[in-house]
Every structure is written in C-alpha cells, then in structure tokens.
Design goal:
By secondary structure, the chain is mostly helical. The protein is about 55% helix and about 10% strand. Helix 2 packs antiparallel against helix 4 (about 85-105).
Length: about 230
Amino acid sequence: MLSRTVGLKCILRPTLQFTAHLSVRGEHTLPSLPYDYSALSPIISADIMELHHKKHHQTYVTNLNAAEVKLKEAQEKGNVNAMIALQPALKFNGGGHINHSIFWENLSPNGGGEPKGELAQAIKKDFGSFDKLVEKMSAATIAIQGSGWGWLGYDSRNGSLTIATCPNQDPLLPTTGLTPLLGIDVWEHAYYLQYKNVRPDYVKAIWNIINWQDVSERYREAISQGL
C-alpha cells in the first residue's frame, strides 16, 4: 500500500490502477509519466506538462511525506490534537497525489475517440449516449467554482456510472463514495499557460487525449472488486 498510516491507506486503496511509488525508506515518490512531456501537444503543451508534473505534483508528494512524518510523531506521543490538526494537510496533499497519479494515466497521445465494450455499454445505459456523457461531464467540470476536479465515477451501491465534482484536491472516493475512473483537472495550473482563462476550450480539447483503455480497465476492476 502507498501509505504508512492506516488513515491514508483507506484513502489510497481504492484508486484502481494506481501504482505505489515508494522509496526504499517508504516515502511517496513522484510517478514517472507514461509519455514524454511533449507527447500530448498541441492539446496540452510540453511547458504545462513539465510544470504540472515536476513542480505541482512533486509539491503534493513532498508535503504528503512531511505530513506523514509529523503524524507518526504525533501518534508515538499520543497527541490526538496534533493528529487532528494534520488531517487537512493529509487530505489536500494525499488527494493531490492520488488525483494526479490517476490523471496522468487517464491521458494518452493515442487517446480520444470513444470507449468500447463494457464501458461503452454502461455509458449508453446511464447517460443515453457517449455524446451525452461528454456534454454533461464537460458542463459540470466547467462550472466548478475556483479549483477542483470533474470526475466520472463508479457507484458500487447501484452499479452505475455517475458524474461528480470535487473542490480543491479532495479525493473522489472518501468524498463521495464513488470509485474514480476518469478525472479532469481544472486547477488553473493545468491549462492557464495555454488556454488563459478560457476553461471551456481546455475541457473541450482534453477529450481528444482521453485514454479510454485506461478508463475501461479501471471500470472493469471496479465492477470485479465491487468497489
């Protein structure tokens, strides 16, 4: 598991296809991208990808490790107040690490088009058509106030696909109970250097690089494990 703490294990466990990136000392490390920084251009420029991955995601990893060290110290001392005070940092940085690790794999230079197989059938059942999914998820994601994420999630309680949004870096599963399948990052650092303040253009363009093979694998694993 990714975390050395029981609390964060509960957050990280169900992310699906989320590789544990740990150093020898058990610290979280920045995952490598499955493509070059320039590979998603012109949809997302190399400058944005490098900044987003090497600076922003790395910051979440660094701060998560620091928060876990402090949490361990607080646990050893039995300092409940300190443990509680650390929860926002664990949620924000742990969520940032989870969300971005999924996001990188949700994208591909060979992406776009439409999903096939079981996922395509589920989308038709729950949304009517693929175009309706794109329309509804895009609208919900664009409408996020401030920073956050738009998600396609799997609801194991009724076996359906659901669209949800989360503010800041709140991770989907502990926030909503949905298993994350596809996430769209609408923090400005994800697009501003290229799309300025025109979030709708960025959201419209990103569908051209969605890795439906990855999303489909997450869906199959979710239904097989009942997550």
